[in-house]
Amino acid sequence: MLKKFRYQIAIFLSVIGPGLITANVDNDSGGILTYSQAGAKYGYLPLWTLIPITLLLIVTQEMCSRMGAVTGKGLSDLIREEFGLRTTFFMMFALVLTNFTNVIAEFAGIATSLELFNISRYISVPICALAVWLLVVKGNYRSVEKIFLVACSLYITYIVSGILLKPDWKEAALYSVKPILMFDTDYITMLIAMVGTSIAPWMQFYLQSAIVEKGITTKEYVQSRVEVIVGCIMTDVVAFFIIVSCAGAIWAHGPKDIETAADAAKALMPFGKYASYLFSAGLFNASFFAACILPLSTVYTVCEGLGFESGVDKRWKEAPEFYWLYTLLVVLGAGVILWPNFPLIKMILWSQVLNGVLLPVVLIYMIMLINKKSLLKEWTNSRLYNAVAWIAVVIMIGLTLALAAITVKQITQPASADVPSSKPLADMQRNDAGRHSLKANVGESGAAHLAR
Amino acid sequence: MADDILFLTELLGLRVHDLKGRRLGFVKDAAIVPLIHPARVDRFLVGGGWSWLTVKHDQVRSISLDGIYLKDEQLTPYHSDEYMLRLVRDLLDQQIIDGAGRKVVRVTDVTFKIHHDQDGDVLNIIEVDIGLRSMFRRLMQGAMPRRLVRRIQTVIPPHSIRWEHCSILEADPQRRLRLNISNKILERMHPADLADIVEDLSPDDREAIFETMDSEVAADALSEVEPDIQASILESLEPEKAADIVEEMSPHEAADILAELEEQTSEDILDEMEQAPKTEVEELLEFREDSAGGLMNTEYVALPENISVAEAMEALKAHEEILETLNTLFLVDRDERLTASIPLARLFTAAGATPLKELGADTLIHVDVTEKQDRITELFDKYNLVTLPVVDGTGKLVGAITADEVISLLRQK
Question: Is the dihedral of CA A282, A283, A289, A292 positive or negative?
Fold first, then answer.
């Protein structure tokens, strides 16, 4: 009996990795700042969204990991095999485009966080880009994975802070289960942003590939599912504490918009003068972590789908497309940040629109795939599960369309300083990383757009 | 480009005309029946209205980019048939094994050669296309005229695999037989290459290959596969087949793999094994994995200490199967206790009558079965060993650790 139990633990430990990493990359620079804004501006009110968000996250990620474990193939592999080259090609094209803009956002996060340490982006970004590149290309994949996992623990600072701040727990608990809907543009946009920041198309591809790479099969799947679910919950526990910290430290002294990285750092007030250091360390870690995984995941996906050799265990000559595309994504993603007066905000906004347009498409393909008996055998979705998944898709489509509509409206309408109340939160914090890094010297266009 | 070449992407959507030149429909798929002919397109599946029709290869008069013209209109409705390999459904966009390049690739297109026969045109598959050129061709097909696509694509270097080097993946063993998929291409590869390929496949495909492959080849390949994949392969096989494969492995490797499995599975496999290899493996399973006993191999050559070089050579000739990896001989006394170890090469320079004993190294380095692996790697490094004898508590020789084992060990760290 004990032996069996020990065997179970051994299996669980051996499957750890994919789910936890994915879940934690979820809280990237965009995530941290979105949640900070939510807490700073609305206090405990937005907490109720976390439960449905967690459910949505679990449903989508569980489907990916199940497909990976049962078929032993990546998501783009399956799309290619079941829907042909043309579908795959256009999806990959859209994904590369979308992910590229996301990579830019991550490097923007790196630039901002290090600027709090007074390190110029012209130094930090090239060095970090090189570090990211080397870590993945020259580093041993397993040790890379361990670095990532250890880095996850930095989120604990928010949990500690959340507790030290002595927030109003009664209120926090109440609003965690009490949905509050206000028909206020800012509030609704923020809700959409919170959902949008949690579930991104590239994550589905990444998770499934990681499960396959790890060699998880139906036998270890049960343990792997536990890991994926634990990861999803962890993501949102961190989100919960970010919101609570910001509510306690900022909102309690008067609702406020997060405008600079220094504002967001106040959430870590209990750490005194170290708060801003801790915050930038956290933001830096989140951005750097995502900057490693995002481009890597993108090339894995593309190479799998289009049939190029891929894998960090291959040599450059064996998988040239893999390494070139990876290098291009990192170099260009970081390079754009250094371009003086580049309209970063618009770029990042458009990346959210692209994300939003692509996600429902990916989800629909996922549901079609996971219901194929020929692929999943007895592991297809049950009817109840399908219902949940489709509802999730409909909600996601609704939300992302709304987000897209609002964002497009914001982009097409020239921003004017006299209507500050309708300023989109999507614009404000979905990728504030970019915004902050820009604030200093973006020049008229960006600054006008954000002027308050 | 030669006129007698046709690509699958071009074939799809070609118009099919009857005797009077009226359009019957468009080509939707083409199928080969490998049991009849390995490369010839046996039938075309033509769709026009609601259902698909089957056009047999001997009903075709001519095939060109302008369409297919028939010489016989007695067409039958399409019905699925287990013996045919449908190129679009079963091959296009799927993974296959490239036997020449020794890797797993994804099919983007198929190249046919049109044979102008007296009775009519026949299509034979000559290559499977995987590169950028075929990707371009496929993406552009329908977006611009076929002939223009052909002209533009020549700027992109081609990347194709000859059909006879392709090994199709099919996870259903029954269907493998019906499609006449043999493992010959795989069985001819180096086990290490085959292992790399197997690692790239999905679990179902791995299982199908090992289930149908010759046990000896399977054993060689399996011992080169990564440990966790090894375990999942053996667990997926019938215990009987797994036992056949494990029997072909060296007892030491077999024990390593079985130790990775769940207890019940490894017992099931042991139950199916022959008595002799089973006992050896079971003995090895008793040792801790990280001790000398767990690392050692029980395939070694031990000779009585009092024989001459000539006699030793004679003894070796009787066991040619072990010579490939043999580099050290061990001498044992009457109680099988280790007394000397002799590098094999010494035998060639020594006179035939020399007693074997005299060739032994001055210091005899050996370890106890319980010795820890760190100490063992240290010994290999310090004394530049290729083989290290392992003895039990009474000094009896029980096995040998070879350098390749130490290399694997160090790489795992």
Answer: negative
